[in-house]
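Box S2. Input/output pair 1.
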Amino acid sequence: MRAVVQRVGESSVAVAGEVVARIGRGLLVLLGVGAADTTREAAALAEKIVHLRIFEDAQGKLNRSLIETAGELLVVSQFTLLGECRSGRRPSFTAAAPAEKAAALYADFVSAAAGFGVSVQTGRFRARMAVSLVNDGPVTLIVDSP
């Protein structure tokens, strides 16, 4: 699994002009599921992300996690994160999981994150989404599953 994690002041997802999810301060996670990924990777990645120390403490150091700040989490599926662009000009998506498997592991990731007491919102799997965000910092990380 691959996640692009962005610390946000706010973020939302719209499908066909309708806002389907919205968070305040927290993390926007764009999540790509690979063909070889398992439930174990989904749980490990969720744990890693909710515990990442990327929020400032009183001294301005990145020392606090999403859990410690009571931040919210918005998870958006994005299979294009697994796109391979090393050769040619058209990305190959053979490393991405098939839709059925990806949907199940996406749900496992969301469930694992919620299990830590985090407020989790989601995009709509396989929908064309318009993602809006106010990047805070900006702080943006790419996090791969173990």
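Box S3. Input/output pair 2.
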Amino acid sequence: MDIWGLPRTACIGGENYEINTDFQDVLEIIGYLTDSARPERLRWEIAVGLFFEGDIPDEHKPEAMKYLAEFISYDSQCEKPGPKLIDWVQDAPMIIGDVNKVAGTEIRAAKHLHWWTFLSYFYGIGEGQLSTVVSIRNKRKKGKQLEKWEEQYYRENRSKIDFRKKETAEDKAA
């Protein structure tokens, strides 16, 4: 993948497929991929179906899944992932506010915002509420001591900082 460009197609099994690159589409795909209430095979089937325009033959699905994973991660040179520090759904209000600030516009009103452009804005967020929340989550996961102001912030904003429990299939059925 050429990270200097903004791909809109992918060559899978020698065929070119249009791909859904809008950040909102990709966030929906991430939602399916991380939905532990569904079997992993089904999650990937849904994600591939949403990402690629047209049907990918079964023999090329592993290649399509690899492409999708690399596209979402944007930088395939990343080291292995650390502890979960962001939840795209729970943290959406903070993410949207901070990305809007970096972008200088309301990103949700854009007709199309490529996922990689969105990530570029996201990586440029800097200091703010989201970085504070992520920093506190990281310290707590690693068992590090919070500073006094962080302890107070945690007490006052616990519902923003602690990850909400995901609904299981049994919870949804009830």
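Caption for Box S3: Residues 91 and 160 are 8 Å apart (CA to CA). The mean pLDDT is 91.
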